[in-house]
Specification:
The protein has 312 residues and is an alpha/beta fold. The chain has 15 helices and 8 strands. Helix 5 runs parallel beside helix 6 and helix 9 packs across helix 10.
Length: 312
């Protein structure tokens, strides 16, 4: 996402180098969406995919629609799904999408219609596997009954654990893998910034997220002390400890967990990949356990399209 949207200007050459570094490091899942840069990220990935199609799994998403006035809408109707997948196939320049997600759910459209239409894409060979993002446990079960769901992508980190309310248990029960997005708290868990409103450019998306600005940011920055201590004791980075925590959710909950930390720099990519070699001790996990319950501020300025809103 960050290559084409949300986090300010990008150096395209550095971003392409980072993608190459990912393949060299053994990363096999590349995640995008049709709304990242209004299709530009899918187009950006096309040459990379042409060179490495057999080495990576490509995941993309539909449903978030950018309106002419800059606002957003969510569409899950079958006609739009077909329109969206054709657009993604064209921009990615691939014959089939490996994993196709519903980016957000419109509760007004029954799963029988939207997931049914996604299932048709599988039968037609346009898509291999289906995923959902930001759904509750009950919604995951309902969708899975229409067509098998392979992956659930939701925010999950030391700071954000609402996915554990119901979705994680349902995923474990159904054999659905979890793909945690923002496992580094959009950079906050790495210590890269402490107040988005003061430190980040005007066009950075994080300036609009309540937990990263003002009094919330100050309170939340103080919660990072255990993360900092564990990193210092191990000679690791805060990012690596945060990623190790997410990865160990697989063992805790009995399901597959594949976090997708985003980065635009080769050095950060290699740093993140090295986190796969870290296993936190029970004592370290205990230090991190209370953090999420103390975080102040919502994940988004508008939480309406999140699973949290439908579980409140």
């Amino acid at each position: 996402m960050g290559i084409s949207f949300a986090y300010g200007q990008t150096d395209d050459a550095a971003a392409r180098d980072t993608l190459e570094a990912a393949v060299e490091a053994g990363v096999t899942l590349i995640d995008t969406a049709d709304m990242y840069g209004d299709g530009r990220n899918e187009e950006f990935l096309a040459p990379f995919l042409a060179a490495h199609r057999d080495e990576v799994t490509i995941a993309t998403k539909y449903a978030n629609v950018v309106l002419p006035d800059g606002g957003r809408a969510v569409r899950n109707d079958p006609a739009y799904i077909r329109q969206a997948v054709e657009g993604s196939l064209r921009r990615l320049d691939v014959d089939v999408i490996d994993l196709y997600y519903m980016h957000r759910r419109d509760p007004a459209v029954p799963f029988a219609e939207s997931v049914g239409a996604m299932g048709d894409l599988v039968r037609e060979g346009k898509v291999k596997y289906l995923g959902l993002s930001e759904v509750t446990g009950d919604e995951l079960r309902e969708a899975h009954a229409v067509h098998p769901i392979t992956a659930l992508q939701s925010e999950w980190s030391v700071f954000s654990r609402s996915v554990e309310r119901s979705a994680v248990g349902a995923a474990a029960e159904l054999g659905v893998g979890i793909v945690p997005y923002s496992p580094l708290g959009r950079g906050f868990l790495t210590g890269a910034f402490t107040d988005a409103g003061k430190e980040l450019p005007d066009d950075d998306f994080r300036r609009s997220q309540p937990r990263f600005t003002g009094d919330n940011a100050r309170a939340n920055a103080a919660l990072l002390a255990p993360l900092q201590k564990i990193a210092a004791d191990r000679g690791a980075t805060m990012a690596q400890i945060a990623l190790a925590w997410v990865q160990q959710r697989a063992e805790v909950h009995g399901l597959s967990v594949v976090p997708i930390p985003g980065t635009r720099k080769r050095a950060r990519l290699l740093e993140n990949a090295a986190a796969t070699r870290i296993t936190l001790t029970e004592g370290e996990l205990a230090l991190l356990e209370p953090i999420a319950a103390q975080v102040t501020g919502d994940r988004y300025a508008n939480m309406a399209s999140t699973a949290d809103a439908r579980e409140a």
